[in-house]
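FAQ: What does a ligand-bound record look like?

Like this one, built around flavin-adenine dinucleotide:
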Amino acid sequence: MEIVENYSLKKLNTFGVDVSVRFYVELKNENDINELLENQEFKKEKKLFLGGGSNILFTKEFDGWIAKISTKGNRVIEENEKEVLVESSAGEKWNDFVTYCVEKGFYGVENLSLIPGTVGAAPIQNIGAYGAELKDVFESLEGIIIQTGEKKSFNKKECQFDYRNSIFKKKYKDDFLITKVTFRLNKEKKFNFNYRAFQSYLKPGDQNKLTLREVSELVKKIRRDKLPNPQKYGNAGSFFKNPEVDADKIHELQESFADLVHFKVENDKYKISAGWLIEKCGFRGKNIGKVGTYKKQALVIINFGDATGDEIKKFSESIQKAVLNKFGVNLTPEVNIY
Ligand code: FAD
Ligand code: NAP
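The answer part, i.e. the structure of the complex:
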């Protein structure tokens, strides 16, 4: 394990923000992880474990240690005629894991095709897209409590999964290293086409005809048509969560905004489209200096040049302020800000 001093993180975060970290290491296997956790200097200092850097905004130099998780491997640990348990290492790219499942004929993660980042980070915000969430296929995970070095496993209930949330964003925030995740996948054909975006892409009869590979490719196409490629435009996906409100708030808003885009989550709990709120405040495709929102989806903040993390954060705050003034709704960042 090589320790590099004053390392630039520009290529390690999809916003492309150019900040440095005082000590950088890449963890390629279990030995590297053990060696780092036993390092006395590392124990004392501020620290952060990094995956693909696709859900993170660095607003200043990182005065401590950053360890990038690059451990690799997918393996079947149990199977029967109907289901299979696959264990995947935290450093696997999420989309490589999806490709592995598609090639093996394992159903359940195809709607989550092409989400950037790593397997290890996926449970942290219970990644979701096109009507599917990680929790739908999650079995368990393993990792290490950073403060104590204690190994710990979590089953689904213990992870406290919620909309873009889990125990790893609360009690264990920045204090638990996820090393392996196990998924329960279907061997029998079963697709979920309920999400609205599928309607304009599916032809009559497609639902019964399509193969697993074709569904995964379809999801990739839908994503590429609507969402920016981080290699071209620096971004971290949706900057904010969709806010959740009660029925009274929905009725109040509908009196002034009849076209309010919202979805019922459960009794008396509704999710409002954050992209719609931002767009209605005039921010869709708007730039301030080198920062702006994507022209096809106002929820995605873009670094159009060499913006600093602080400039991106200030821009996000101007969006929050505008949405609060116009709708009385608070937007909470989904992106992890450091
Ligand atoms: P990072 O950004 O590296 O880290 C995020 C947080 O997790 C940090 O706090 C970090 O310390 C922590 N972390 C990372 N790995 C570990 C680990 N092994 N153990 C403990 N902590 C760890 N998200 C969705 O949910 N749905 C989408 O459809 C989606 N689309 C996106 C599209 C684009 C273009 C982009 C840029 C992002 C998108 N995202 C989406 C957000 C992002 O891809 C996910 O949140 C992803 O899971 C982040 O993974 P990462 O490895 O890049 O995490
Ligand atoms: P979209 O289809 O334009 O939809 C806009 C919003 O409406 C989404 O946030 C979505 O919530 C919600 N929505 C749409 N149909 C819904 C339904 N039937 N039930 C409940 N909620 C519904 O979104 P998009 O921007 O093109 O993104 C497509 C998918 O990829 C979405 O699922 C989105 O979450 C995901 N995505 C996530 C990120 C990220 O960084 N988190 C980035 C890009 C895309 P949900 O977000 O809950 O689905």
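Follow-up question: can I read anything off the structure? Yes, for example: Residues 14, 48-56, 69, 90, 115-118, 120-122, 124-125, 127-129, 176-178, 227, 230, 235-237, 336 surround flavin-adenine dinucleotide (ligand 1) (CB under 6 Å).
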